[in-house]
């Protein structure tokens, strides 16, 4: 089944050229199917690029998914046309009275900023608290994972001395966990962050299921036992050239970034990188939609109740 997105969203044409089944709102309105309602809170500066990346991963499922895009506030964007935001994005006040099957909170370029210095920190906390009572499962990605750990477990910000950038090998620690069904024993995933997610620290200070780790990158995937909160510390949504574009951007800004690890063939920036993480990225999102959202959510979202998630599966 397809994802359902607004007819004129720029991602529509991109995904159709990739033979991804995208259903317009017009056609979807004629079907008698209860689609999953998934909200994406897009915190990244280049919102069109990011929304396309996440929509691509959400499309790899037999489930019909109805996507809505959420912006954190109404401040002008330097990287996304205001008309695009006004047409395709909603303010939180317009959705706060509703329930959703899933919520994705993207990363944000705030790795060296303290939580209390983030201009929208209070609003973000409000949305994450709202999700506890209005969303079946929330997926926190990269910086959002650090923010979610602060909210749910009051963990202070853990920051690496040097930015983690590259593609790293991860070990599948719980191959029978629903989120890792179909995963290889080891797999690749990209990271781009200053946040530090040490396995021992999370094991000591949380009750999370630690699902996948890297000797270098630390925890990659973790989940609460009821699967209502899933933390992905890397960027499975990244395109092949995303790390390259970030590296060139930082070089141009005079930041002297370290070349992304295990990314350029022969560590030569002139060699075009290839996406080596794509299959596991698609599988992770398909598993999340199926096992954490579809299998858990009520058929009638109006009857959403936090009580149904109090027992372990």
TrEMBL record:
UniProt entry tagged with the keyword Cell membrane: no
Residues with site note (Important for substrate specificity): 192
Reaction(s) catalysed by this chain's protein: L-homoserine + succinyl-CoA = O-succinyl-L-homoserine + CoA
Cell inner membrane listed as a keyword: no
Enzyme class per UniProt: transferase
Keywords: Acyltransferase, Amino-acid biosynthesis, Cytoplasm, Methionine biosynthesis, Transferase
MF terms in GO: homoserine O-acetyltransferase activity; homoserine O-succinyltransferase activity
One of the protein's GO biological processes: L-methionine biosynthetic process from homoserine via O-succinyl-L-homoserine and cystathionine
This protein's GO CC annotations: cytoplasm
InterPro entries named among the record's database cross-references: HST_MetA, MetA_family
Pathway: Amino-acid biosynthesis; L-methionine biosynthesis via de novo pathway; O-succinyl-L-homoserine from L-homoserine: step 1/1
Binding site for substrate: 163, 192, 249
Active site, renumbered: 142 (acyl-thioester intermediate), 235 (proton acceptor), 237
Domain of life from the UniProt record: Bacteria
Site residues by UniProt (Important for acyl-CoA specificity): 111
Localization terms from the record: Cytoplasm
EC number: 2.3.1.46
Family to which this protein belongs: Belongs to the MetA family.
Function according to Swiss-Prot or TrEMBL: Transfers a succinyl group from succinyl-CoA to L-homoserine, forming succinyl-L-homoserine.
NCBIfam families in UniProt: metA
HAMAP family assigned: MetA_acyltransf
Protein name (Swiss-Prot/TrEMBL): Homoserine O-succinyltransferase
